Amino acid sequence: MVRMDRNDHETIQAVLSGDKEAYGALVVRHSHSLFRVAFRITGNEADADDVVQEAFLRGYRKLEGFESRANFGTWIYRIAVHCALDKVKHRRGGETSRVGDANDPELDQLQVADRSAGPERILLSGEIGSMQETALHGLTATERTAFILRHMEDRTTVEIGAALGIEPNAAKQAVFRAVQKLRRRLAPLRVAT
Amino acid sequence: MKHLTEEEMIEHAYGESDNIVAVERHFASCPQCAEGFADLEHDLTGVSRLNAPPRDAHYGERVWGSIAPSLPLYAHQKQRFAWFSMNAGWAKGLGYAAACALLMAGAFYAGRQWEHSKRPSMAQVEHKNPPVKQPVVVVVLDEHLDRSERFLVQLKHADVDLSEMAQPMRDEARSLLAANKVCQQKAAKSDDPELNTALEHLDTLLAQAANSPGGLNTQSISKLQQEMNSDGLLFEVRVLRSRIDDHKKDGSNTAKGGTI
Q1: Class of domain B134-254
Q2: CATH 1.20.120 location in chain B
Q3: B22: which residues sit within 8 A by CB, 6+ positions away?
Q4: Which of A5, A44, A136, B50 has the fewest CB atoms below 10 angstroms from its CB?
């Protein structure tokens, strides 16, 4: 039976003292937020479930190194972002037909042209989400994750930098590049609406 | 204020502008930037937030159930780590001990080498301090002269009661005569005329005492005392012994622990 009456730090102390079951409370408490960000980064439900499990496994192994002053939710969140990023990179590395180089304007145009038969059809067929997904997948893994954390998870550039292991300014630039690319790729939708 | 760049607009859209009030004031006075910002907000709003599919209230418990079996117990880990650290401590201690032993061995070896380099070789020692063979001779000679001195003293006082002392003195004379032959051979190699003369004189007296016809008696002893000047020989022997004593003292200083 998972005890939920202790805060994160008390629970961590219990785990480190040999109460393995106490870790279950941390899993229950933070698994939903981890699944959400994992799904947004991976874009896949099954992958997101894998990421959540992997994140809690890594967190358990590294629990001795967890600083008591830190926030466990933030800490395990960062681990989950790393796991999701690894998953995306691994998946992209294994893809035989990639979306293409996001910096290639011709490919950008080609992708949009391939996936759309015109603004009217998009609006009518409800393929806006698909366009967005395609545009997001045209970003690099870091740009995509930075944009998701900024745009969807409402994280600051400092938090994004910490989650990605990069400097805040680099995180800000990643967000800028992501927005610029998305706007360019989603321009046809703007005309349609 | 200059027109805003796209980056500044994006920064402002996410609430991270350095000066939000100044940017808003600029938008109010610059329709071009205001329009550009409106387009940006429209585009960003158009990007859905990709809401994750809902997970029920037991999702966390299922996740826990899936990973719990693969998690080791931290206490066991700690014990293992404690055992490891204990062993590591032992290993560390042994390492230190080995290092100390190695250091001591090295120091010992270095000391030996240093001492060897500083200490002259045996050949050098022999060169600087020639073999002190003399002390061996000296010891033998000293012992022989000591016995000879006692014999000469007995001979000097033998006329008082000779009956009981005649045979033992003759035996002692014979023994001393043989020893004196050896000492003479040794002394002959040395360049010491006083010693050689004394031993030669002693040899004649001992030969007379050992081989006198009819044994030692008052007449033969008197003859030895007068003709052989036994008292003078006794003096020579005592002088030689004093020289030997001096030589022994010098030898002990120069060849202490040496070749004797």
Answers
A1: mainly alpha
A2: 134-254
A3: B1
A4: A5
